[in-house]
Amino acid sequence: MNKSIILLSGGLDSLVCFGLAKDDYNIELALTFDYGQKSAIREIEASAKITEYYGTAHKVIKLDWLKDISDNALTSADKNLPQGLDNPEESVKSVWIPNRNGLFLNIAAAHAEAGNYSHIIIGANKEEASTFPDNSQNFIDAVNNEFRYSTMNYPQVIAPLINLDKNGIVGLALKHNIPLDLIYSCYDDGELNCGKCESCTRLKNALIFNGASEYVDTLFNE
Ligand SMILES: [Zn+2]
């Protein structure tokens, strides 16, 4: 029987991964990372709601040092978060965290080896791979190759959304009744998703594309 770990930020991609993979991959542990990002508390709250909904153990891992070694808009109070989708190359530079997905997957692999988990699930997807190389299939393949050398049990990384953009991801969520009302997908800290940052803009556009305006009304702060 498979036994899996999921990387859970509490946002759209990781929730939809959870809903799609829970039956086939027997997800028993969700890992949420607090690296000092502005949205950390909201992400932890959303992830706790999601793991409660699916009945899965939840562990928050603190990586305080990560914000100390990098200067970016996700963690630095004096840097503005990218708004909208007009300038993706500038945007990716401003929110890039050094080796983030590589680090997260290696921490998950250590848990997978210690607890004998067979799979690690991540919400990497085609839309983000267009600007973030650590969301690409090549990256997933490279990490799987790495784990053949760095672990004794070779946990396999699975990315169920790797061929999907945000419109497709929201479409699947609606088709499978995945509870989108539980997510926090914003780069900023707030009672609700801000509705203006790059991450919120991608989510909002995909909800509108799929005719899910009820979530536009309830998830965003406007
Ligand atoms: Zn936002």
Q: What are the key terms here?
A:
Rossmann fold; 222 residues; 48% helix; 5-stranded parallel β-sheet; single chain; 5 strands; binds zinc ion; globular; alpha/beta
Distinct ligands, ions and cofactors found in the model: zinc ion
Shape: globular
In total, how many beta strands? 5
The top level CATH class name: Alpha Beta
Mean pLDDT: 94
Rg calculated over all Cα atoms = 16 Å
Question: CATH H level: which superfamily?
Answer: HUPs
Number of domains: 1
Description:
The mean pLDDT is 94. It is globular, with a radius of gyration of 16 Å. Strands 3-2-1-4-5 form a five-stranded parallel beta sheet, sandwiched between helices. With 222 residues, it is α/β, with parallel strands linked by helices. The chain has helices spanning 12-25, 40-54, 64-69, 88-95, 100-115, 126-129, 137-150, 166-175, 198-209, 213-219, and strands at 4-7, 27-34, 57-62, 119-121, 156-158. Helix 1 packs across helix 8 and helix 8 (166-175) packs across helix 9 (198-209). It has one domain: HUPs (Rossmann fold, 3-Layer(aba) Sandwich), CATH 3.40.50. The protein has ten helices and five strands, in the order βαβαβαααβααβααα. The structure holds zinc ion. Residues 186-188, 193-194, 196-197, 199-200 line the site of zinc ion (ZN).
